[in-house]
Every structure is written in C-alpha cells, then in structure tokens.
Amino acid sequence: MNDSELMVLPLVVRIERATPPERTDAMEAAATAVLSLLDDPGEWAAELHAWQSTGKIRKVVRRARGAEWRRAVALPGRTVEHRTAQVRVHPPVPLDAWPRDLARLQVSGTELTDTREPGPADAPILWENPALEMSAGKAMAQAGHAAQLAWWASGEAERAAWRERGLAVSVRRATPEAFEAMSASGLPVVRDAGFTEIAPGSCTFVADAPWLLGRVARS
C-alpha cells in the first residue's frame, strides 16, 4: 500500500492558553469522539469504510484555539464536550489530502497535565502504559485506538448498553505490574506503529471491561 492509499482520522482538541483541558478529560473525549463516529457514521459511512478497510486505523490529533478552533468547527465533523475538554472528530481523509484548515493546525504543543485526580472509573477502562512517555496528543490518539478495539470486540448487546451510557469511557494510568498482566490476559491491546514518539510495537493502552476478557488471542 502506498501513501496515496492511506487514510487518517483527524481529531482536533481545543487548547485555549488560559483554559487548557485536563489531560484525562482530553483523552476520554477523544475516545468518545471516535466511538461516536464508529457507532453512527451518518453521511460519512463511505469514508469510514474506506479508512477501516485499509487495515490501519491511524489517527492524528492536532490542537486549535480561537479562530483556528472556529474554522475547524465549520468543517464537517462532530464535537464531543467532556468536562473540561472539547474534541472534534472529522471524517477520515487521505493521508496527503487534509482539508486546508486542518492541515494548518499544529501537532505539537499538546503537553497537557491533570491538575486534579480523576474520579472513580467506570468500565470500559482504557489503561495507559506507565512505562511510556507520550504527549497528550499522542496519548489521545492511542486512547482512540483502544476504544476502537474495544468496540470491535464488543457484541451487539454490549454495544447497545454502552450506547445507553453515552459511549462513555474512563482513561487511567495503570501500575507497571497491572499493565503487564492485562496486556497478556486476552484483553484488546494497542501496539503502536511507531510513526511518532515511541518505538514500533510498543504497547500503549489496554482496553478493560468484563465483557472484553478473552475476546482476543493472548500475547
């Protein structure tokens, strides 16, 4: 497959200088935005099918503020608002054919932090690998991958129940021991392609829910 056939799912996170979102909120918003498109692609069903049929689920997170954000919102897509975060998901596009107003946005500058401890977690929980250092933008994309793998591994009844809960997910950082155990337990695991920041094959996230255990082959 050459680059002209590759597609990517654009995600834009709103990061205003005075009011940046919490890191966990941004990751959870990104995951929910991806799930929203998977659950109901609407008029973008063809683009979604073309993207998923490549066998690669590449996602790129860019940041926007002020007029940049307003231009992003004017483009086709959906915005998810989750506590302090706003994330917009756009229909998949060819890797080399981004809409101009999205292509102009920066990938760097997403060094978000949490200023408070996240509240209680509800399943599904997307567990971040504590051994890796990722920018918030990178982690948002990886959380989106984990949510997508969890969606694929869920049955119709499980998806329906998840839908009733607003496609909500929790994102948390695991302990090293817990992450190692979960990644070998038959739960969906994200292994990074190595395009940016971390080594190819790195396990970035594990998707954890009672109904997901054993749905994939053990490592």
From TrEMBL:
The residues that cross the membrane are: none
- Alphabetical list of Pfam families matching this protein: PTH2 (PF01981)
Enzyme Commission code:
3.1.1.29
A GO molecular function held by the record: peptidyl-tRNA hydrolase activity
Superkingdom of this entry's organism? Bacteria
The alphabetized UniProt keywords are:
Hydrolase
Enzyme class, first EC level, given as a word: hydrolase
- Name the chemical reaction catalysed here: an N-acyl-L-alpha-aminoacyl-tRNA + H2O = an N-acyl-L-amino acid + a tRNA + H(+)
Q: Would the keyword Heme be found if you checked this record's keyword annotation?
A: no
Q: What is this protein called?
A: peptidyl-tRNA hydrolase
Native organism: Nonomuraea pusilla
What taxonomic ancestry is recorded?
Answer: Bacteria, Bacillati, Actinomycetota, Actinomycetes, Streptosporangiales
